[in-house]
Amino acid sequence: MVVINISSLDRGLVIPLALLTTISYTLYILIYRLFFSPLSKIPGPWQTRISSLLEVNALKEQRRTRWVSELFEQNPGAVAVRTGPSSVSFNHPDAVKAIYGHGKGFDEFGKSSWYDSFSTTGESLFSTRSKKRHAMKRRMVAHGFSAQSLLLFEPFADKMLEKFIKKMDGFAERGEPFDIYFWFELFTMDLMGELALGNNFGVIEAGEPARYSTLVEQSQRFGNLSGLLPFGKSSVKTLSWVPLPYVQKLWKARVEYLEYARLALQKRFQDDRRQVTPTGKPRQDIMQRFIEAQDPETGVKMDFAELRAEASSLMVAGASTGSVTMSWMIYYLCKNPDIKSRIEKELEIMFPNNLDGSKPTPFTKLNKLSLLESAEIECLRLHPPIGYAMPRDTPLGGAIICGIFVPGGVAVGVPAATIGRHPMVYKNPDKWDPERWSDETADMAMMKTCFLGFGFGSRQCIGRNVATQFITKMIATLLLRYKIELENPGLVLETKEFTILKPSEKYNVILRRRKS
């Protein structure tokens, strides 16, 4: 036996055992991911086998959704593409049901660690990963989004709509072209302020956006970035240590945004006793429903930290997504005057005493106009607010999705913007055609399965009916009161990605008062 006296060796040439182990392990991981992992057979850029940097870069360049769609275009016929070392996007109807479906056989796909980046001061309905916690939260607040609650929320929408129409009348009187998306953003910001925080921001009357709206956008971008990076997944604050100006700007916005939400919610509690209805009860907005929410099984109520997280989540979900959907609806209705004319006629028949749009249009009637609702759904199909995949982790033992085995702990999902234009699901998928939703020859079940504008399964957006309520009220009121035209009739809008998908450029409309 040969005994080596380490002390006799040149210590400058000795590689520390820990470093040698780290290098060996790193090489092993790289080789495994590149050549031997079950995921290595899934198409995608080779870099995605070892790093998430391609997806991070696409996010930074505001083209993450487009990047994923391009991967499918580059691999015709593929039902899945690799987007990172442990992330795969699918593009097939069966994948939607397998990943997002609920019930027996589907309950092992949990939300991925990406969602942790959106848990701010507590878990919200959107960010919580625990199925048990989500089920409890949903039970607590379900009544707050019921048909009865919609009737209680409607006066707040009517109040903001009245202020909005006064501004629109000014543009109509002057015949002045203006950016309607800008004004939709002001409307939804004020409305969600009323519903989530107990007071509006006054942005409609001021004609200027609140700083809060910018903070929301930047904070969500920080969360997205953190959720994609390995070190960011372990702790959102870890990313804040990166000394890059871009990252520091987003982090400061997140901190300011959360502080703003805290102060606004505190004021909401302080003013609660003064904001009562003639019956002596507190104002019945969404936040009041959350405050009163109580789990029927355990009696648990939300604490202030959770309410603050829910308020922050509501502002993002309601304000950002509502305004962009209304903008797309106006654009497509102006580009399709036959559909617009038919909706106008239906509105005139339904509201013969309100041909100038001066009175509130009750949602209980509007929700019977199938063509108006189909126009909204079609916009969300082509331009879902969140275009990339909402990730779910495969169960520990792995799962077979669309015939492909995916190991356990891999983030999988279906990009809403990609599946929403799948030619196997939708005829002429790039065409805006609201009548497809009433086509008796179409496979309606498959179309609805692949419509992810509000999510799918037990985790789909609980505020869907609230969003549809104020969106349809806005569009109906505008169509009754004005003739709406694009300043540039030949305009062709594309999509640009911020946190959500928005029109690629500003566009102006011209309003003219209709004769009553």
Structural commentary:
- Helix content is 50%, strand content 8%.
- The chain has 2 domains: 15-85, no CATH class; 90-397 and 413-513, Cytochrome P450 (Cytochrome p450, Orthogonal Bundle), CATH 1.10.630.10.
- The protein has helices at 17-36, 53-60, 64-74, 93-100, 131-141, 147-174, 180-197, 203-206, 211-228, 230-234, 236-239, 245-271, 286-292, 304-335, 337-350, 363-366, 370-382, 416-419, 444-449, 464-481, and strands at residues 80-84, 87-90, 110-111, 178-179, 392-393, 399-401, 404-406, 411-413, 482-486, 495-497, 501-503, 508-513.
- The model has no long low-confidence stretch (mean pLDDT 84).
- The chain has 516 residues and is α+β, with helices and mostly antiparallel strands.
What is the count of structural domains? Answer: 2
The third-level CATH topology of the largest domain is: Cytochrome p450
Distance, first to last CA: 105 Å
Tell me the fraction of residues in β-strands, as a range: 5-15%
Q: Supply the CATH class of the largest domain.
A: Mainly Alpha
For the biggest sheet, the summary is:
5 strands, mixed
Poorly predicted sequence stretches spanning 5 or more consecutive residues: none
At CATH's second level, what is the architecture of the largest domain? Orthogonal Bundle
What's the overall average pLDDT, rounded?
84
Oligomer: single chain
Report the C-alpha radius of gyration, rounded.
25 Å
Tally of individual helices: 20
Strand order of the largest sheet: 1-2-8-5-3
GO molecular function: heme binding; iron ion binding; monooxygenase activity; oxidoreductase activity, acting on paired donors, with incorporation or reduction of molecular oxygen
Keywords: Heme, Iron, Membrane, Metal-binding, Monooxygenase, Oxidoreductase, Transmembrane, Transmembrane helix
Cofactor: heme
Protein name: Cytochrome P450
